[in-house]
Each structure stands twice: as structure tokens, then as C-alpha cells.
Amino acid sequence: MEKKLNKKGVSGIITTVLLIALAFVVVAIVWTIVDNIINKGIGDSNACFGIFDKVSLDSDWTCYNYSSEEFLFKIDIGDLDVDEVLVGVTSEGTSKSFKILKEESQISGLLMYPNRETIIKLPDKDAGLTYILNMTQMGLDGAPTGIQISPIIKGTSCEVSSTIDYIETC
User: Fold this and answer.
1) What is the pLDDT averaged over residues 94-108?
2) What CA–CA distance (Å, rounded) separates 95 from 34?
3) Where are the domains of the chain?
4) Which of 3, 118, 132, 135 could form a disulfide with 140 if both were Cys (CB 3.0 to 4.6 A apart)?
């Protein structure tokens, strides 16, 4: 007498093994996608972590000259690599923002202090530079009422790192 194999039992085992393998593949794909999203978010937030007091305005070098309508401000950068700084200046009823880049560039109405060069750049690491902003050329009315800066690091815009709300007279 011949023994017959239970083919239904074998196909049930194969089906179970295939379902388990498929579940592992789906979990691996989902894990890879979620891990990439989390790591990108962490990388973006790490760019701005720990920059407190490393990108700041120097109030001793920030003032306004009423006769020339020139606003002087100094940016200090600590031990940090900064790509750009977003500068926001407010005056009586108007405001203007512009970016100062790490690479040399020109910004209408902005000069370097004291030589009045038109080629503008950010301070290097552990340094500071002073700028002269011509309020009229920049399209701002009256005296400045405040200035704030926000660093941009590794393509990530950080929160405002320094603000001066009272501008002295030069």
C-alpha cells in the first residue's frame, strides 16, 4: 500500500513562511522610510542647536547718525560655521530684511565699516564685522527702531539669535 502525502499540509507551511517573509520585507521598507525622515529632521535641528550667544549683535557698535542717515551695526560670530545671516531692520512704519552671505556679494545701501567697501561678507569664525546701512537707499523711512539677526546654518534657518530694540545716536 502506498502512502499519500498530505499536500494541503505542505502548502499551508509554505504559505505561512511566505507571509512571514512578506511581513519582514514590509517592516524593513517602512523602517527605512521612517528612519530617513527622522534622521533628516534631527540633522536639521542639530544645525541650530547650541548657537546661543554665538551669532550676536554688538550693542556698543550699533548706532544711528541722523545727519548722514547711516545706521551702523556690528555682527559677531563665535566658534561656528555660518552660511548666511538674515538681518531685519525696522524703522518708523517700515521694515526691510536682507541676507549677508559668507561669500562676497553686494547689497544696495550696505557698506563695510570703516573703509566703505561695497563688497559685503559675513565675519569669519570667531570674528566680527561692522556694517553701514544707508536707510534711504535701503528704502527705510526715518531712524531705525530695531534690528534682529537670524543665522542660516547648513541651509537651515535658525531662530532669531540677537535683537536690539533701542538704537543709540552716533
Assistant:
1) 94
2) 41
3) 1-47, 55-169
4) 135
Bridge partner list, 158:
none
pLDDT at 128: 96
| Residue 10 pLDDT exceeds 70 | no
- Check if CATH label 2.60.40.10 holds for domain 55-169: yes
CA 38-85-42 angle, 5° bins? 10
pLDDT reading at 78 higher than 70:
yes
CA atoms lying within 13 Å on the CB side of residue 54: 18
Using the Cα atoms of residue 80, residue 146, residue 99 and residue 120 in order, give the sign of their dihedral: negative
Q: Which helix (H) or strand (E) holds 1?
A: none
- The SS3 assignment for 43 reads helix
